[in-house]
Amino acid sequence: MKKKILIISKCPTHPTNAGNRYWILSQAELLMELGHEVHFLYIQELPMRRDITPYKRDFAETKKYWKDRFHLYKVSKIQKLIFNIRKKFDEVFCNSYYSIDEVYPKGLTEYVNDLNRKFLFDICIINYVFLTKLFTKIKISKKAIFTHDCLAYRNLKVGESCRTMTAHQEAIGLQRCSHIFALQDEEMAYFHLLSPNSQVYNVYCRYAYHPQLIAGNRNILFLSGNNEYNQNGLEWFIKNIWPAIVKRFSDARLLVGGSICNVLKNTDGDRINFLGYIDRLFDFYALGDVAINPVYQGTGLKIKTFEAISYDKVTMVHPHSIAGIFKKETAPLFVSDNPKEWVCFLEMIWSDESNIINIKERNRSYLIQMNEFITNEYKRFLSY
Fold this sequence. Notes:
It is a single chain. This protein has about 375 residues and is an alpha/beta fold. Helix content is about 40%, strand content about 15%. It has a seven-stranded parallel beta sheet with strand order 3-2-1-4-5-6-7, sandwiched between helices. It is globular.
């Protein structure tokens, strides 16, 4: 039976997105492929001072993609100012711990209820736990959350100060959700613990397989947004791994794409090229046969790992970047934090194309298995 589904997010979502935004869209597209009518509500919360040109581009692309199923709720500048003041208060007086509802947009409940009166949604899915207050106020019968991440005690997980909450606050939010979508094995167990009466599904992230020709060069690729975990991971790679690679391979190059270039473009390093904004992922990944995910912090889905696999790359990662992934024992990945092991593996890959061909076939098989599992999880959710 066809369902009407409303997905709500503070992130604009369209086909050229990567990272978490891609994950949101991939789930929406799966629901549409299963025959359901999906609407998207974008909560637009613009920065107070930063250049908003990239936000305008994302907004235009999102509106273009969703057409008449696109809905917009704007957070006012006054409310954004209040959010910023509260954030500063938390930093100074609460060690950056915040409560579950303090960034919930005023007026969102009324807006969603108006939409529901017009479209009569069967399902509402929100992105991130800090929007769960909505579920205490609306009459849509089936409610679910895309969690994206474990938010409690993030400061302890990454070993540095960052915005976080207690497990009690996260549990308050999760227990408002009858259905919880986890992104990986470890988080599924965690959410079961915090919200024992909820149905928890492990949905990873669906990726299409994009076969590519062998480039035949010694380029190494990294495509990333500019969040702190990604910056730290790339800096770790450049400091600890890259010198050993450069010493062994005189023609090796590191090509970095995405908004991370805006932050690290002046990073010192031999034969490192920062390419900036990438318009077409396929074209970027066609520049080499090897891609990396050196991120060693955070939880959530290891999106850059799966993205590299989906674009048919030999994928090399820090051990952190396989935690909780689908069938990690058989995943087509090189995993190490040892520079000598990285160099030895690259010698094997770059000396014999048959090794690259073998990994490409493993990439394809792995994604087929994972995507079948994800589809079955969504069918289980829809039939519950």
